[in-house]
Structure formats: structure tokens, C-alpha cells
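Input.
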Amino acid sequence: MRAPILIIHVLADRRVDPDHAYRLLAMLELHGKPHESLFVSKAEHRFDREQWILVIRRVRRFPTASLQPEIDFLQDPRSPREGRCDGPTVSWEKQ
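Output.
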């Protein structure tokens, strides 16, 4: 395996024990393979709206950060908790 990998796991998952993700990360580190991880707390086998926002933001950034680190990110739109931001008023600014 040469391509970077992103491991996303929920800590309260009753179907897939988080230990599976921890073992995978340990093996990736042991073999010096490029990887990132995101562990979502208070989620079971699915995400709520706020958790999806967190996951999608990380998934959106991963390919660029891993494969083209010289490219700047556009700022993510605010989440519902950060204030409503939808329609044509959404602004995308460089971080």
C-alpha cells in the first residue's frame, strides 16, 4: 500500500469495535504507511447531522492535504451550530 489512507471510526459503535481501527492504525504506523484518522465520539453505527459535517469536512480535506499539500483549502461553510449559512450568501475564502 502506497496511497495515504483515512480511517474514520465511531467510538460508540456496537457493531464494529473501535479496536479494529486501532489495530489497523498500529499496523500502518509500524510499516511507515501514510495515514490519518478521525474518531467520532458519541456516535454509534451512523452519524447525526453535526457528525456528518465533521466527517465530510475531513474527507474533503484529506485528498488535497495528502496528495497536493501545496494547494490551499477554501474555508468550509459554517455548520448549523456556527450560524446558518446557505444559498448564494455562502462565501468560500482561503484559509
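The mean pLDDT is 76.
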